[in-house]
Structure formats: C-alpha cells, structure tokens
Amino acid sequence: MTIAYESGVNLFDTAEVYAGGRWVSYKPLRSSLSTNSSFHDQQCLKGSLQRMQLEYVDVVFANRPDSNTPMEEIVRAMTYVINQGMAMYWGTSRWTAMEIMEAYSVARQFNLIPPVCEQAEYHLFQREKVEVQLPELYHKIGVGAMTWSPLACGIITGKYENGIPESSRASMKSYQWLKEKIVSEDGRKQQAKLKELNHIAEKLGCTLPQLAVAWCLRNEGVSSVLLGTSNPEQLTENLGAIQVLPKMTSHVVSEIDHILGNRPYSKKDYRS
C-alpha cells in the first residue's frame, strides 16, 4: 500500500467478493477509493465502510445485475446509499450496454441517480465492449469506462509461453477454466501473437506487461485501469507503464493492431 501511495496511485478498489482486495492504478482524475459489491441492501456497504474505517467511498459498484431483482429496486438502492452519504457516485460492473441504458432510463423516469461508469474487462484480446459499446453510452448518457484485467489473468505476462508453470494461477484447481483457455487452439495463437508483441516492447525499452497496460491507458475512453498484483515487484513493474504511455504513437498502435488482427469496427469506422 505504501509503494502504491508513493508511486502516485490515487484509487483503490476493494470488494466483498475478493479475499484480499485489489490495488488499482489509473489515469489520475481525482483521489478516490471505491468498493465493489454485489448487494441490494445497504447493510453490506455499511460493513465495508466499517472495516475500511471510512465514512464514505467515492464510487460504489453493483457487480453483475440480479435478474431476479427489478431494475428500479437496484437503482433505488444505489440512490439511497448516495443520499445517505455512504457514497458519492455509483457505477456498474459487468453489465451489458442494454442493462446500463435500462438503469439510466429508470433513474430518469423516477428522478433517481443514474450510474456514472462501468467496470469492464479490457485487454489486448478483449476489445469489443470498451472500444465499441461503451463509447456509444458515453456520448449518449455520459457513462465512463473503468477497466480491469489488463493482463488477461496473467496470460499477457508471457509466463505461459512454454506451458503451465506449477506456481502459476492456471495450475490451481479453481482456475481450471484458465488452464483450458491457455492450452486451447485460441490460447496457442494468443501466445504466438504475444511473442511478436514482445519485439515491440523490446524496441520501446519496456516489458510486455508494461506495453499491455500502456496500450489500455492510451484509449481516450478509459478513465482508469485496475491492476491486480500479488507482490510489490509486480506493482512496481506495472506502474512503469506510465513511462511507456508517451511512446504509444499511432504507428506503434497500428503495429499492435496488425499483430492482433482483432480491432473492432465502430459506427465511426463504417461512416468513414
């Protein structure tokens, strides 16, 4: 935590569903602390605030909408915690564009508070939502993007290039899905692309993880990038992406797009 503060990290993300919480680094907009919870009762947030010894958080997130709970109830619950002074804003996490629009419409209909941002997975191999869907929402209703998993659960670090190391996350029983993903045909193709991307990282004088995080940060629609680290060394390395960001020229980004071959097309692309 000390290293994070001293390095300029000004947002921390903790959640009821995570054992140890997550450290977060992002484009500095303002000092902030967020809590992410899948609850519909303000008692859960009260418990989080007590454990963190805080009176309020800047942003509280509704993690995945409950299909058995009416949208009006969710929006009213979030409006309540804000009106009670427990949070300044609320956002969504892993919601579809349609669900976010529904929440916004409900808020406007009943004079409630709408969400201001969406937490979405975004990395070199996952681009559609952040690059196509969320920009549409931003221009229509002002919802921003707070992205997570910039290293794709460790896949982009390069440690799975020669298989599954015994000490890696993919070797754990609870991450069998990750192992299957890595050893699949698509997984092998991704590893081949990472080898090519590593040449770009070397030319820029950075590591592959730093290149991947900087690539996420270079997106103007991304307000913040959540970093999950297990030790200070990883945190320090990932934060080094800030120094790589100025090197992410249009030429470099085009090189990366050419290697990945997965750049999604937006309405703007079709118009041009």
TrEMBL record:
GO biological process: regulation of potassium ion transmembrane transport
Catalysed transformations (reactions): a secondary alcohol + NADP(+) = a ketone + NADPH + H(+); a primary alcohol + NADP(+) = an aldehyde + NADPH + H(+)
Subcellular location: Cell membrane; Cytoplasm
Domain NADP-dependent oxidoreductase: from-to ranges: 42-259
Statement: the UniProt record of this protein carries the keyword Cytoplasm: yes
Gene Ontology CC: one annotated term: cytoplasm
Keywords: Cell membrane, Cytoplasm, Ion transport, Membrane, NADP, Oxidoreductase, Potassium, Potassium transport, Transport
Any one GO MF annotation of this record: oxidoreductase activity
Origin superkingdom: Eukaryota
Keyword Transmembrane: no
Membrane topology according to the record: Peripheral membrane protein
InterPro entries on file: K_chnl_volt-dep_bsu_KCNAB (IPR005983), K_chnl_volt-dep_bsu_KCNAB-rel (IPR005399), K_chnl_volt-dep_bsu_KCNAB1 (IPR005400), NAD(P)_OxRdtase_dom_sf (IPR036812), NADP_OxRdtase_dom (IPR023210)
Cited Pfam families: Aldo_ket_red
Family, similarity comment: Belongs to the shaker potassium channel beta subunit family.
Identification of the protein by name: Voltage-gated potassium channel subunit beta-1
Species assigned in the record: Amphiprion percula (Orange clownfish)
